């Protein structure tokens, strides 16, 4: 163990870290258990090549902490955790299956201390492999043995958050006639577009895959599509970042011509100062980790054996209520919702869980 790995683990304020070196593939496995106040540590599994094991561990720790905030913000009884499989090269075929199987066995040996699902670099099919070795995997339908797509649930949650934000910004939660620009029409953006269309919104799309944006525009009866580089300056009521992180930064924020930002992308703010930049410009920012929690909420419920789709959707829709409270508090003290969200998380964690 290098000194930096040792000091990272010693200095961390989390519950602890599970470390395993997978000899056959040369993969470092880190399971960062951040906080189990509300329930068992739960978060996705990221598979990626990192410059060093220490950087991989730091990533797992940072992401695990983010999961603590996400669960607390939407008041779901899970704790924060995240796993990183720091692979030395892209793994395919038997090598990949072998690693995932051994990783599944490691999770199983933790007896429910950690539960996981897909994240960057892992696929629903990977979760199926892991689920053969452990029951602590979310996003797998055990009756059919198939993977469940989180995108539509996440999109539903974004829609709920968008309604809350629009209600605060415009004084009514009607999305009818609101101009919504979706950046990235993939697994989340496309179902979100369909839901917004049903709600009567006036849609705009941009995607680096311009054919994908055009195909969706055609499917939905002719929404307007924009070149990706013009996304920030396009006039709209709501900008919905559903592609990559850090799109809200010192360069883009002065360009924005919207009243609300609400989308699924993780880590939308390049830095905390960008929350102030948005606030100063009078643009209402719906914190990403609240708005994009729909898929996580749904998977958590399915993992607990909930099969009633209406019950799952109702819980995802409750993102509206969670965000409404945070936006009201932010308005009361005239601050960015990012700060109000952080306080709400701290208060929820201070109250503790039911376990
Ligand atoms: P995806 O890969 O299915 O879709 C992303 C889309 O964005 C693609 O169509 C891609 O071509 C496009 N894109 C990529 N870079 C772009 C850019 N610079 N400008 C415009 N378009 C660009 O991903 P997804 O599953 O839809 O996730 C979208 C975002 O939401 C990601 O940040 C993801 O981390 C986050 N998120 C997703 C889920 C989920 O349930 N899938 C849950 C929580 C958060």
Can I get a quick summary?
The chain has 355 residues and is an alpha/beta fold.
Describe it for me?
By secondary structure, this protein is of the alpha/beta class. It folds into 2 domains: 5-69 and 79-147, Leucine Dehydrogenase, chain A, domain 1 (Rossmann fold); 151-293 and 319-348, 3-Layer(aba) Sandwich (Rossmann fold). The protein is built from 13 helices and 14 strands. The chain has helices spanning 3-11, 53-73, 93-109, 124-131, 151-170, 189-198, 210-219, 273-280, 288-291, 294-303, 309-317, 319-332, 337-351; strands spanning 16-22, 27-35, 41-42, 45-48, 79-86, 114-115, 140-141, 146-147, 179-183, 202-206, 224-226, 238-241, 260-261, 284-285. The strands form 3 sheets. Strands 1, 2, 3, 4, 5 and 6 form a 6-stranded mixed sheet that branches. α2 packs across α13 and α5 crosses α6. The two termini are 35 Å apart. The mean pLDDT is 94. Nicotinamide-adenine-dinucleotide (NAD) is lined by residues 150-151, 154, 183-189, 206-209, 212, 228, 242-245, 264-266, 292, 295.
